[in-house]
Design brief:
The protein has 276 residues and is α/β, with parallel strands linked by helices. It has 13 helices and ten strands. The strands form two sheets. A six-stranded mixed beta sheet has the order 1-2-3-5-7-10, sandwiched between helices. Strands 4-6-8-9 form a four-stranded mixed beta sheet. A hairpin with a 2-residue loop joins strand 1 and strand 2. It is globular.
């Protein structure tokens, strides 16, 4: 009874709010929908948005009336990764700064007893790719594209380095992580990045179909199987990841991105001009 009262209080006080105007949380029956809605910045995630995705997972797991979460985006972008131009203007930056790497939702999705489904409606890369990979089922629009461009920006993404080899094999992981190669939805399914591809206009229906398939399994058994499967990803070296974000290469990588040019480390003969 106390838990039900707490949930009613959450709803009455508007605490379904995810802490940023760029995320929407909607309840549709027993499914929570978290929609990334920042089209003016191509859905790039601010620190507050990363934390908001984490909160969406927590909301679903805390509410007995909700059984699953679907994460999706607007227009032709799912999630392209984090904001790289410094426009983090949508939350309490002092609080966010204290949390540091803890704003990231990856462990929360990985450990969520409630099923998480990603409905990838378009561009999916960086943090968006990690979210898609950690989701229990990812359904991709036929228009979706996937990419891991972190090394092009000077970032050592320990999450992708730990997960991609386990999910798609060492050779494929090397190519995606070390070249920033872009793959379409069918190639992503062939590699094992996703398991389902749907016509773009049917994506929402296909995502709900995936939710239904997951919810037919016994909840405790499903959660334990998820834990055992995800253990194959191994440990994520957060210290290496955090240290790389302070490196000179990241400064140059982000600056080059903002200036729409190749980073200075690219030899002239291989510099095709423009942003990588």
């Amino acid at each position: 009874m106390e838990r039900e009262d707490a949930v009613d209080t959450q709803r009455a006080t508007g605490t379904d709010d995810l802490g940023t105007p760029y995320l929407r949380f909607e309840r549709v029956g027993s499914v929570g929908w978290c929609t990334v809605d920042r089209p003016q910045a191509r859905n790039a995630l601010t620190s507050s948005m990363y934390l908001g995705v984490r909160r969406a997972v927590d909301l679903v797991n805390a509410d007995p009336d909700l059984a699953a979460l679907v994460i999706t985006g607007v227009d032709d972008v799912f999630i392209p990764g984090g904001e790289m131009t410094g426009r983090h203007d949508d939350g309490n930056e002092a609080t966010i700064a204290v949390l540091g790497m803890d704003v990231l939702p990856f462990r929360t999705i990985r450990n969520s007893p409630a099923p998480v489904v990603s409905a990838v409606n378009g561009i999916c890369q960086g943090g968006g790719l990690i979210i898609a990979m950690l989701s229990d089922i990812t359904v991709a629009s036929e228009r979706a594209t996937f990419r891991a461009p972190e090394t092009l920006r000077g970032i050592v993404d320990a999450n992708l380095a730990a997960m991609l080899p386990a999910q798609i094999g060492v050779a494929n992981a090397r190519e995606l992580l070390m070249t920033g190669k872009r793959v379409d939805a069918e190639e992503a399914r062939r590699l094992g990045l996703v398991t389902r591809v749907a016509p773009h206009d049917d994506l929402r229906t296909a995502a709900l179909g995936a939710v239904g398939d997951l919810l037919r399994a016994a909840p405790r058994a499903r959660a334990e199987v998820k834990r055992l499967i995800n253990a194959r990803y191994g440990l994520v070296d957060d210290m290496t990841f955090a240290a790389s974000l302070q490196s000179a290469e990241v400064i140059e990588g982000f600056t080059a991105f903002a200036e729409k040019r190749s980073p200075g480390w690219v030899p002239e003969e291989f510099d095709t001009g423009g942003r990588l």
